[in-house]
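**User:** Once you have settled down, spend some time on the protein underneath, comparing sequence with structure tokens, and judge whether sequence predicts the tokens.
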Amino acid sequence: MKMLLSLVAGLALAGTLVTGALAQAPTTVTIQMKELNGSGENGTATLTQESDGVLVEVTLTGAPTDTPQPTHIHIGTCGKINKAPEYGLKNTVAGKSSTTVPGIKLADLLAGKYAINVHKSASELGTYVSCGNIVEPAK
């Protein structure tokens, strides 16, 4: 009987540890978007885990009001980014973009090296105007 009680207590403790670990995984992360190339486009990107994917909401100040700006998630960091986009996002227009990227997990983005990059315009894709590394906030 003592062995059974010890086993039940051990399983309960293990369940608590697993639940605690799962509870620590963030469901929403806000990252800083920083200007590049003197654009003055700073702001945030909020990533939220949803049932069908990750919602990415970009908000920038200093962005042009009349030029749609291609926006993507790239592999790498703002200092060393893979030029080929990994996930396309809706264009940032007047400093705003909201896209649900289907089939991905926020935990996977946080576990890898990814960055959100905003380009100057469709005709000037090589000019980056704002970038933010997707990282878990410091605790």
